[in-house]
Known about the structure:
With about 325 residues, chain A is an alpha/beta fold.
Amino acid sequence: MTTLTIGNRLDDKDAAEQSKYNRYNGITSGHRACQGCGEALAARCVVDVAHRVTGGNIAVVNATGCLEVFSCVYPENSWRIPWLHSLFGNAAAVATGVASAFVISGKKDMRVIAQGGDGSTSDIGLGCLSGMFDRNDDVLYVCYDNQAYMNTGVQRSSATPILARTATTLPVRGYMGNAAGTGKNVPQIAMAHEIPYVATASICNIRDLEEKISKAILLKGSRYVHVHVPCPLGWGYPPSETVRIARMAVECGLFPLFEAENGVVVGSTPIDNPKPVEEYLRAQRRFAHLFGKNAPPEIIETIQQIASRNLEKYRLSGEFSHE
Amino acid sequence: MLHQLEGSQAIAKAVALCRPGMVCAYPITPQTHIVEHLGELIHAEELWNCDYVNVESEMAAISVTIGSQAAGVRSYTATSSQGLLYMQEGVYNASGLELPMVMTLGNRAIGSPINIWNDHSDAMSVRDAGWIMLFPETNQEAADLHIQAFKIAETLQCPVMVCVDGFVLTHAYERVDIPSPEMVDDFLPHYEPRFCLDAANPLAIGTMVPPEYFMEVRYLAHKKQLGALKIIEQVGKDFYKKFDRHSGGLIRTYKTEEAKTIIVAMGSVLGTIKDTVDELNAQGEKYGVVSVVSYRPFPAEALRAALAHAQHVVVVEKALAVGTGGILFQELELPLKNIVRKISSIIAGLGGRAITKSMLKYALKQDEREIFLGLDQNVVAEKIQLVKSCCCK
Ligand SMILES: Cc1ncc(C[n+]2csc(CCOP(=O)(O)OP(=O)(O)O)c2C)c(N)n1
Ligand code: SF4
Ligand SMILES: [Mg+2]
């Protein structure tokens, strides 16, 4: 891995798109996201780097959710790219239509991004997403995973981690929050369709996120990138901590960073010294009840096991990993 | 050229002549033959530069169509019944986004109980969704109305649904005149989107609209529908000029000049009704018929003018608003208030129940405000008895 010093930032080639003075700024400031919103940060990275790589030939289809609501309340609008919002559960299918139309109307350079939150992706929109994967439609789908339905006030989705507190999994005596043994893993579901490219990314590693998007946006067929985006409001931590929280999730193994091609994992980002999950959990109020006096002591271990399994499954200790 | 065709094939051929760039297919009876035939035409490259997408649900069908239309390509899909309900969120979305797509609705009952046969319940479930809704009477008109539908949609920037009676039209073989591609090209020019997703001209489509602007959005949609009345009429006239055939328009009248009683209906049942009226008039009665071709926008003014001299208006319809009664009937009551003395309602053909001339003749003789045509009172009584005897144990 290259060591980045301040000096390297002046080298345009190695610099992150977000660090460039002339980044496109596809989502302008002034939108209504909460301070420290991980989703806003990630979407900006995705759009700017995709805009750069395609020479501005992108269109975005957005599902309903925080990102859509905070970016465009008429007559204001933050998007500086062609952008379409239809419904909550149909972004993948709408994007299929858009991609097809670009081919039919001879705009062959146009690349299409569909994007949505974890709720629209893993729950209500999963049918449309699977259909898009099935047909290998030429769309890059980006899921911004803040692990709950944030826009409606932090309810559980199938991407909510076990034992987390949400508005619909409020811990009470005898109930510790979102039940263990539940949830689905959309990157794995995407891989099962054997689409050309699947990756996970995190806003704690913008360079890695940008690299994956740069690669994915130019590939043909269905591509899926799942981005971990902490939400200060829903998770209960100060807005200034978003990037640090994201990094803790990666460093303990709870959110593994990997890439897969045609259904097979081809690389992952190694973790040198995996941290215990406890540190990550303690930093967020949605897990506070796990450390109360009524909490069974072995409960943290349940979550630790998930992280440890990930370390093994994605070989985060090194053999696999790319540079 | 004249062809002996199944209704679905005639519709598919008419749609293909309109050169869409997107046809989205999902199976549901009785619409299925239409998209099957279009698939054949596209895969055989008789219709070229058109994508054919086999989707996984009606929600995807309408959504793919929304996407391609928003990106500037003439787009088409078809559905029926449960499929229309399944995509209903997208139906409202398409009109809200002002996307001029065309959809065929192969009219079919809605379950439960599941029933694949024809009535108009499906269409009625989206009557307030902001689409133009046209009801052809014959397969010829079904084909013609699809050609007109694209023209109306694109002139107005509003989606159009052509509501074709399932089986009665979609599966019936009739002689249909399919016009030449040159004539259709001349009638329906190459599609130039008024707005679309375009990198050179970035546009945000489908933003959230707060209370300060929402009333205006809805008011404008209402205005647009009312303005559509003129355009639908004009497109019908232009069609006549070009193809020398009366199809479309807002309403059509049959023997209404001297009629004392006028029957109002939509769709294929009009054939049976006209035959009935002919027979009755031959015996000295004075019946007339008004066909509602454009159900949305609702041609209240035209209907008032056509019905004003009647002593009695009878609305025959294949739909029922459970708890209130006939839907078209209720919509006519207000415009005809203080103009026509007597209006009555015949609910007929639900779930594909046959509508015969003798049933109609019998019903027309009854002096009742609401009749369920051919209702078997024995079955009803039995069912009521059954419920009484087995509930609340
Ligand atoms: C069909 C439908 N059901 C429910 C909603 C309400 N709704 C809007 S946004 C949202 C939550 C979005 O959650 P997610 O996709 O995770 O995005 P986030 O807001 O968390 O970024 C919900 C439930 C809707 N708009 N449409
Ligand atoms: S609730 Fe969370 S995801 Fe939504 S805008 Fe606020 S920080 Fe972002
Ligand atoms: Mg979410």
